[in-house]
Design brief:
With 182 residues, this protein is mainly β. It is built from two helices and 15 strands. It is elongated, with a radius of gyration of 17 Å. It starts with 12 loop residues before the first strand and ends with a strand.
């Protein structure tokens, strides 16, 4: 019975072009198929793509093409989640994962492996883990709010701590990611 299960998006991999991100996840024990939601908002109030009864563990996410996002980073960032299903039950939706088309497509495959910084979870409650191929110090990190003002934060052993809710732009050695603190 999957009704009390909340899938964890572990083993997620991304293969991305400028317009499609192929995502793959680990199978959920007992599941025969999956539903996928893709949204431009972390709370999934703006769902723009869905997949139903997918029998595998992969899905192609199309880059949003909304006119109002044409000149902002928002057009390159989407969120996805899955629901595991079988003939008798469905799970809860999984935690969400962010996909950034811009970050994943602007680097060659060699550069991706050596320089891509990953922030998780996103959205966050204020504690954000940083995964990077190389060591990072606090001086490598710049965090700006939506007004472009520098934001105070703590950094210790791969974890950023931000105490105020909001939308932030996190730059680590010049590579910027959108971050939401709820």
């Amino acid at each position: 019975n999957l009704s009390s299960v909340t899938p964890t998006l572990s083993g997620v991999t991304f293969t991305t072009t400028s317009s499609v991100a192929s995502v793959t996840w680990d199978a959920v024990n007992g599941a025969t198929n999956y539903d996928v939601d893709v949204a431009t908002s972390s709370d999934f109030s703006l769902i723009y793509q869905t997949g139903t009864s997918i029998t595998g563990t992969s899905f192609d996410i199309n880059k949003p093409r909304f006119k109002e996002f044409a000149r902002t980073e928002a057009a390159t960032v989407v969120y996805f989640r899955i629901k595991a299903k079988n003939s008798s039950s469905s799970s809860n939706f999984s935690n969400s994962r962010m996909v950034s088309f811009e970050e994943l497509t602007s680097l060659s495959s060699v550069e991706k492996a050596s320089s891509l910084n990953i922030l998780y979870p996103n959205p966050s409650k204020g504690l954000i883990s940083v995964k990077s191929a190389s060591s990072i110090s606090k001086s490598d990190i710049l965090i700006l709010n939506t007004l472009g003002d520098s934001v105070s934060f703590e950094y210790n052993l791969g974890t950023i701590s931000i105490s105020t809710k909001g939308l932030y732009f996190v730059s680590i050695r010049g590579k910027t990611t959108t971050l939401i603190v709820e």
